Amino acid sequence: MIVRHVRPWGGAPTDIAVEGDRIVAITPSAAKGPSLLALPGLVEGHCHLDKTFWGRLWWRNEVGPRREDRIANDRVARRSLDPRREGRALAEEHLRNGTTRLRSHVDIDDDSRLRHVEALLLLREEMQGRMEIQLVAFPQAAILRTRGCEEWMDEALRMGCDAVGGLDPSLIDRDPVGHLDAVFRLAERHGKPVDIHLHEPGELGAFALELVAERTRALSMKGRVTVSHAFALGEVAPERAAALYALLAETGVSLCTSAPAYRATPSVRRAREAGVVLFAGNDNIRDGWNPANAPDMRERAEAVALKNDFRRDDEVEWALETVSTLGAQGCGFADYGLTPGARADIVLLEADTPAEAVVSRDRPVRVISHGRDIPLARS
Ligand SMILES: [Zn+2]
């Protein structure tokens, strides 16, 4: 297959030659006239395929004000779901919008135990060859305070989950050292990367970041550990934040943000300056936690741009990198990019520049994943 006369990242028109699932050559295009913009397949760095109502009738949310209310609400909400069906609907819509790699956390608690893990492992298999999915074993209701949770997580990793999750070690388990030791113990035993949800505020969150960095260094896990949200970085004093960014850069801990409207977030600019990989994900999409968000990474990139007060084209391109190259780097998705040897995951858009692709609401003209065209009509 030759994808003719397209502009990778808005550069000069080229022809992209594809053999099997690989890009084999990129050569200047001899054609004249208008050409489409080409981007590499987009990366969803953080979502929850096992919670979404995507494709279902609207679910009326009447959640209480506290975190405990939200966790209880989520349990009720997800009870009627089949993660393989709703999660599949969400993944398919993501794919039609150009997402070819996706990291999903999957709940493990005393209610669901390994039920969601089993469902999403099947979904991952069903999507194989069209979308690359990573699953993070996620202790939604604490590790230490939920009897059996560490054993279920251990089993989930044996069954094939790709990474070890964690959650607010002080606020949920009330034992930050114990919680993080359990997370990293599992990571070491299974040789798997780590991705920890950290909503903890200010100095409490900063302390957790230090504990994560220390364990990353001790286990030589540079480049294999992510902290999702890390709101504390947007909340502590600038000099405290600068020291934390330096520590994360030195130990090779990356960050993932959903750029929500309701909290301060890590800064894309400061992360870049410090040498910290900061990528983006939607987090909850139309579920018991959040009625909003969409399976469209260009929309998420726009949220990142708005949150960071980006106006210049080069800055808006940084936002696009958080849902493409930096997402692939942070999650460890291999063979990524518009380059010979990389997997042929290509999104073609009617846009002049990458910045226009971020803010445009037009759907992709063509999506190629693993070297094959994805049908774009919605069923
Ligand atoms: Zn999440």
CATH architecture of the largest domain: Alpha-Beta Barrel
Work out the strand percent.
15-25%
* Termini gap: 26 Å
Bound molecules: zinc ion
What's the CATH H-level homologous superfamily of the largest domain?
Answer: Metal-dependent hydrolases
Q: And the CATH topology of the largest domain?
A: TIM Barrel
Morphology: globular
Q: Can you summarize the main beta sheet?
A: 8 strands, parallel
Can you tag this structure with a few keywords?
binds zinc ion; alpha/beta; Urease, subunit C, domain 1; TIM Barrel; eight-stranded parallel sheet; 15 strands; globular; 379 residues; 2 domains; single chain
List the helices and strands and how they pair.
Elements: E1 2-8, E2 14-19, E3 22-28, E4 36-40, E5 42-47, H1 67-79, H2 83-96, E6 99-107, H3 115-127, E7 132-138, H4 149-159, E8 163-167, H5 176-190, E9 194-198, H6 202-218, E10 225-229, H7 232-235, H8 238-251, E11 253-257, H9 268-274, E12 278-280, H10 297-307, H11 313-322, H12 325-331, E13 346-349, H13 354-359, E14 366-369, E15 372-373
Parallel strand pairs: 1-4, 5-6, 6-7, 7-8, 8-9, 9-10, 10-11, 11-12
Antiparallel strand pairs: 1-2, 2-3, 4-13, 13-14, 14-15
Provide structural commentary:
The protein is α/β, with parallel strands linked by helices and 379 residues long. 37% of the residues lie in helices and 21% in strands. The strands form two sheets. It has an eight-stranded parallel beta sheet, with helices on both faces. The radius of gyration is 20 Å and the shape is globular. The model has no long low-confidence stretch (mean pLDDT 96). The site of zinc ion has 5 residues, from loops.
